[in-house]
Amino acid sequence: MSAALLEVRGLTRHFRVRDGFRQHRTAVAVDGIDLALRAGEAYGLVGESGSGKSTVARMILRLLSPTAGTMVFRGQDITALQGEALMRLRENIQIVFQDPHASLNPRKTIFFSVAEPLVIHRGLRGTALQNRVEEVLEIVGLSGNFLYRYPHELSGGQKQRVCIARAVALDPKLLVLDEPTSALDVSVQAQVLEFLRDLKARLDLTYLFISHDLSVVRHLCDRVGVMYLGRIVEEGAVAKVFSAPDHPYTQSLLSAVPLPQAKQPAGRIVLSGDVPSPMAVPSGCAFHPRCPRKIGAVCETERPSLDSRPQGRRVACHL
User: What integer pLDDT is reported at residue 210 of this predicted model?
Assistant: First the structure.
């Protein structure tokens, strides 16, 4: 591990949502998060659907502009980059989306899909372009026989490998993986995860791995941040957080992980109610309406800060 590659401070994103005729309300998708990714690590971002994980990823890639906060990548403030500077940034930050079937143009060959960023960013043509496309396909375990096939001729796992090849073709420093295995069969998921682990070591990549599957994060990541309703509520080394979670929400998530009957924990935590709407975020701790360990008015009125704990842990909880 080395110095921070990406630092995010107070990152916030609000959306204007129409609520009835001529009325708009504000949905808080991301609510002032802080995180830092060290060069060479795999950082997992987990939480329920709608917690804001993918919105964070899209802001880091500048596919969305933040409402507030700052993002610093390799010492450069990228919060408001535009034009040529933004294009240069995207050479170093690439993304692999959740659904490989929707990520590839069905009318274009695999060669075109992988070659396009090399043409746009590097200006490669002819033999140099052909050689680089073959090289990156070989890196992801696909032979030159795939060059002129179309997406419908590939399996789901092969399509995702093509998407990964396209993402690493420009030698990025940071690779954002937005639930890259959730659309694949279980057997194919295991193959892709092992491949991603090997690829990280071979190319010296830094991963931001977004998932709601805790077992996948345990397998691939070094550190993990747990999100609830747009906020990070716990962060730390994967082994520490998964073996002894501090925040009640993290405890409930881990208690719900399916295990063989012999290993099933006796104290499964069943939360009451539903996740509140991002258009009506509760005051104080956002988790307090569902928290089984709520301690009274302080949880309902005071927002807990994400405080540092021993062993590099950070937890946002009044307990």
Answer: 94
CB 84, CB 77: distance < 8 Å: no
pLDDT tens sequence across 248-278? 999 998 887 765 544 455 567 778 888 888 8
Q: Hey, is 30 helix, strand or coil?
A: strand
- 71 by DSSP, 3-state: which? strand
Contact 66, 110 (CB under 8 A): no
pLDDT digit string (tens) for 202-258? 888 999 999 988 888 988 999 999 999 999 999 999 999 999 999 999 999 888 776
Question: pLDDT at position 262, please?
Answer: 41
Question: What would you measure as the largest C-alpha separation in the chain, in angstroms?
Answer: 69
- Enumerate helices (H) and strands (E) in the chain, giving the number of each: 11, 12
Here the contacts of 307-314 (C-beta below 8 Å, separation 24 or greater) are 309/236, 309/246, 311/236, 311/237, 311/240, 312/236, 312/237, 312/240, 313/234, 313/235, 313/236, 313/237, 313/240, 313/241, 313/246, 314/232, 314/234, 314/235, 314/236
Number of residues written out for the chain = 319
Which residues form the domain of 217?
A: 4-315
- CATH number, domain of 268, equals 3.40.50.300
| Cα 190 from Cα 172, distance rounded (Å) | 24
Beta bridge mates, 7: 36, 72
Burial string for 224-257 (b: 16+ CB within 10 Å, else e) reads bbbbbbbbbbbbbebebbbeebbbbbbbbbbbee
Is 151 in a helix, a strand, or coil? Answer: helix
Structure tokens at 103: 């990520």
How many C-beta neighbours within 10 Å does residue 161 have?
A: 25
Count of the separate structural domains present in the chain: 1
